[in-house]
Specification:
single chain; 140 residues; alpha+beta; Aldehyde Oxidoreductase, domain 3; four-stranded antiparallel β-sheet; three-stranded antiparallel β-sheet; 7 strands
């Protein structure tokens, strides 16, 4: 799973507002021919990214090439069950990637369009956000 090698601070503020609005960067297919675009904002965990990557890789039978355009930098903490209020911030639970609407999350190349579309559909089922298949050859 994806985790940062090193962070300046182990625990960070939650910053729940960073998934609102529409993305201005990372909105175009840059590496591959096909892409999976987020249609809303969400926090995607490193486990969900890995599950989506595995689903795509298995479907294309390790052919072609897949790029992961998002990375989980944000640390999320959680207190244990039934712990009283106070006594500080909880323990580190997971890392998440804060995604805005319009971000290209995955890209793919080296496979047929129908194969890529089905692989991206399987990946989208693993993610907590509505997604759209993007073909860089099609003019919008």
């Amino acid at each position: 799973m994806l985790t940062p090698k090193k962070t300046k601070y182990r625990k960070t503020h939650r910053l729940r507002g960073d998934i609102n609005g529409v993305a201005t960067r990372g909105t175009q297919v840059a590496f591959g021919q096909y892409g999976l675009k987020a249609m809303g904002g969400a926090e995607i965990t490193s486990r969900q990214i890995e599950a989506a990557r595995r689903a795509m890789t298995r479907y294309i039978k390790r052919g072609g090439k897949i790029w992961i355009r998002i990375f989980p930098h944000k640390a999320v903490t959680q207190k244990a069950a039934e712990v009283p209020m106070g006594s500080g911030k909880g323990a580190l639970e997971k890392y998440v990637a804060a995604i805005k609407a319009g971000v290209i999350m995955f890209e793919m190349d080296g496979v047929e369009r129908e194969v890529a579309k089905e692989a991206m559909r399987l990946a989208a089922q693993k993610l907590p956000v509505k997604c759209k298949f993007i073909d860089s050859n099609e003019i919008l």
